Amino acid sequence: MPEGHTIHRLAQDYAARFTGTAPRVTSPQGKFSDAADLLGGAVLTATEAHGKHLFLRFRDADWVHIHLGLFGKVGFGAAPAPPPADTVRLRLANDTAYADLRGPTTCALITDAGKRAVHDRLGPDPLREDADPGTAYRRISRSRTTIAALLMDQKVVAGVGNVYRAEVLFRHGIDPYRAGRDITPAEWDALWADLVELMREGVRNNRIDTVRPAHTPEAMGRPPRVDDHGGEVYVYRRASRPCHLCGDAVRTAGLAARNLFWCPTCQQR
Ligand SMILES: [Zn+2]
């Protein structure tokens, strides 16, 4: 499942290619055809992301709401667009570029009210200017649920996925099994500020890097990480490998339906 930085990056990538143009909107697969017809000749006026939800605005208030889910993907290319595969749910194409969306969980045309309902279900997103981390802390500070599970709950914080939750808890030495209500305001402020910084860098680089300058492969004289997710990390998918800080084995366990990774030595707060 892509994390929030990927969706914000997609919002930027769609905007760079289509804002201010009236792309041809089609659904080669057919499932979005009726909505695509309604968008004929409409100008794409804005794009936006909130957590793992992507919104493309046409005209004043026609929104295409996209959630990639586990299998969704977007591919961009330069015009002229080749004949589409019949798995493409939504194609946008103008004189300079095209974008193909395949396999999303959601691709629907919604109104402003429908969009507001999506926002209302989501917690603050560290990548949005309007995010209020206090809203998240009110939920966290009342909860007996573990901080590792709360960070993955999109109603609490939107956009954080399995990689960022593991890495931000490591960076702050926090035991992932601590209850939310035991997280102090100062700890939450630090976690939030770090998420903002890490996720912004994720949007810029289109990948997740979480190691501090002292722990890069160059600084430590170690080989770079080899993983199809890319990026340098402390614990994510490093089960039973030595921790970059203390050398003890990184551990893994199931938590909130996903594998959690952490260092039991470094994360005792
Ligand atoms: Zn360690």
UniProtKB/TrEMBL annotation:
<dbReference type="GO" id="GO:0003684">
    <property type="term" value="F:damaged DNA binding"/>
</dbReference>
<keyword id="KW-0238">DNA-binding</keyword>
<keyword id="KW-0234">DNA repair</keyword>
<protein>
    <recommendedName>
        <fullName>Endonuclease 8 1</fullName>
        <ecNumber>4.2.99.18</ecNumber>
    </recommendedName>
</protein>
<dbReference type="GO" id="GO:0006284">
    <property type="term" value="P:base-excision repair"/>
</dbReference>
<dbReference type="Pfam" id="PF01149">
    <property type="entry name" value="Fapy_DNA_glyco"/>
</dbReference>
<keyword id="KW-0511">Multifunctional enzyme</keyword>
<dbReference type="Pfam" id="PF06827">
    <property type="entry name" value="zf-FPG_IleRS"/>
</dbReference>
<dbReference type="GO" id="GO:0000703">
    <property type="term" value="F:oxidized pyrimidine nucleobase lesion DNA N-glycosylase activity"/>
</dbReference>
<keyword id="KW-0378">Hydrolase</keyword>
<keyword id="KW-0479">Metal-binding</keyword>
<keyword id="KW-0540">Nuclease</keyword>
<keyword id="KW-0255">Endonuclease</keyword>
<dbReference type="Pfam" id="PF06831">
    <property type="entry name" value="H2TH"/>
</dbReference>
<dbReference type="GO" id="GO:0008270">
    <property type="term" value="F:zinc ion binding"/>
</dbReference>
<dbReference type="GO" id="GO:0140078">
    <property type="term" value="F:class I DNA-(apurinic or apyrimidinic site) endonuclease activity"/>
</dbReference>
<keyword id="KW-0863">Zinc-finger</keyword>
<keyword id="KW-0862">Zinc</keyword>
<dbReference type="InterPro" id="IPR015886">
    <property type="entry name" value="H2TH_FPG"/>
</dbReference>
<dbReference type="InterPro" id="IPR000214">
    <property type="entry name" value="Znf_DNA_glyclase/AP_lyase"/>
</dbReference>
<dbReference type="GO" id="GO:0006979">
    <property type="term" value="P:response to oxidative stress"/>
</dbReference>
<feature type="domain" description="FPG-type">
    <location>
        <begin position="234"/>
        <end position="268"/>
    </location>
</feature>
<dbReference type="InterPro" id="IPR010663">
    <property type="entry name" value="Znf_FPG/IleRS"/>
</dbReference>
<keyword id="KW-0227">DNA damage</keyword>
<dbReference type="GO" id="GO:0003690">
    <property type="term" value="F:double-stranded DNA binding"/>
</dbReference>
<dbReference type="InterPro" id="IPR035937">
    <property type="entry name" value="FPG_N"/>
</dbReference>
<dbReference type="InterPro" id="IPR015887">
    <property type="entry name" value="DNA_glyclase_Znf_dom_DNA_BS"/>
</dbReference>
<keyword id="KW-0326">Glycosidase</keyword>
<dbReference type="InterPro" id="IPR010979">
    <property type="entry name" value="Ribosomal_uS13-like_H2TH"/>
</dbReference>
<keyword id="KW-0456">Lyase</keyword>
<dbReference type="InterPro" id="IPR012319">
    <property type="entry name" value="FPG_cat"/>
</dbReference>
<comment type="similarity">
    <text>Belongs to the FPG family.</text>
</comment>
<dbReference type="GO" id="GO:0008534">
    <property type="term" value="F:oxidized purine nucleobase lesion DNA N-glycosylase activity"/>
</dbReference>
<feature type="domain" description="Formamidopyrimidine-DNA glycosylase catalytic">
    <location>
        <begin position="1"/>
        <end position="99"/>
    </location>
</feature>
